[in-house]
Design a protein that fits this description.
alpha/beta, 9 helices, binds NADP nicotinamide-adenine-dinucleotide phosphate, single chain, 7 strands, Rossmann fold
């Protein structure tokens, strides 16, 4: 049956790749992010029914209305992929509380708030699938990304609990944890002053292609995975941290993270 998939962060990188891959499968799409021009351009290139709903995840008081608009346009949302997010490249002691709050607003509060309204719709419709793009940094942490890691860790606490709450309502929750993916995530990351970094990290430049990742993500959602890891050698960090936490802490002291 034709699915309706709502993707946040669809204007670039992983979200755009997810939109292109779902479009090939014939899904109806709702494309969201702040940059309406990029979303419209993407929608015009997709050979599938698609709706552009621009939104800013940090404007949490607008998200109920955005959810109403999406439901009114498509009648039924089968899959929500909470993918919009912003990263960080700045030392904790030099980063302002304001910058930390901005990262938390987008990566955590906005994501939780949008999910609340879509999840209620899914409960009313008898089921659905919710995914959220965390990161390997949602499980481990890393210098220069303390607030980002905190926001992504918070997603695990929230969505693991939500999965249990929504189980009886036939709603599946998948937490996606990518490693290094070749997108502009570091270019768009906030520095200590809360400004756009504008630098491509080597790790991202040499990372997995977003279109390769998108296929893997869709497979993990279709399989109903609860948590899924993606990337190259960096995925090992999850297991080193889990089974040898002290060793992981020493490795982190020497790791090239910028
Ligand atoms: N690339 C990686 O290596 C990597 C690894 C792990 C996790 N991730 C996560 O993957 C997700 C997608 O990132 P990406 O790698 O594709 O980077 P990206 O190219 O920078 O994409 C980020 C997306 O989020 C949107 N966004 C940012 N701030 C927003 C806001 N306030 N409201 C609504 N949308 C907003 C951006 O659109 P607008 O600017 O148009 O709003 C853009 O579409 C993020 O959650 C990121 O944390 C990335």
């Amino acid at each position: 049956m034709k699915q309706t998939v709502w993707i946040t962060g669809a204007s670039s990188g992983i979200g755009e790749a997810l939109a292109r891959t779902y479009a090939e499968k014939g899904a109806t799409l709702i494309l969201s992010a702040r940059n309406e021009e990029k979303l419209n351009k993407l929608a015009s290139e997709l050979k599938t029914e698609s709706y552009v709903i621009p939104l800013d995840l940090s404007q949490t008081d607008t998200l109920e209305q955005k959810a109403k608009e999406a439901i009114q346009k498509t009648q039924k949302i089968d899959v929500l992929i909470n993918n919009g997010g912003i990263s960080q490249r700045g030392l904790a002691l030099e980063t302002s509380l304001e910058t930390e709050r901005r990262i938390m607003e987008v990566d955590f509060f906005g994501t939780a708030e949008l999910t609340r309204y879509v999840a209620q719709h899914m409960v009313n419709m008898g089921g659905g699938k919710i995914a959220v793009t965390s990161s390997l940094v949602g499980i481990i942490s890393s210098p220069y990304r303390t607030a980002y890691a905190a926001a992504k860790h918070a997603l695990h606490g929230y969505f693991d609990g939500l999965r249990a709450e929504l189980h009886e309502s036939n709603i599946q929750v998948t937490i996606l944890c990518p490693g290094f993916i070749k997108t502009d995530v570091s270019v768009n990351a906030l520095n200590e002053k809360g400004e756009k970094l504008n630098e491509m990290d080597d790790a991202q430049a040499n990372g997995m292609e977003p279109m390769v990742l998108a296929k893997k993500i869709i497979r993990s959602i279709e399989k109903g995975k609860k948590e899924a890891y993606f990337g190259g050698y960096e995925v090992l960090s999850i297991y080193i941290k889990r089974f040898f936490p002290s060793l992981f802490a020493s490795i982190l002291l020497k790791a090239k993270v910028r």
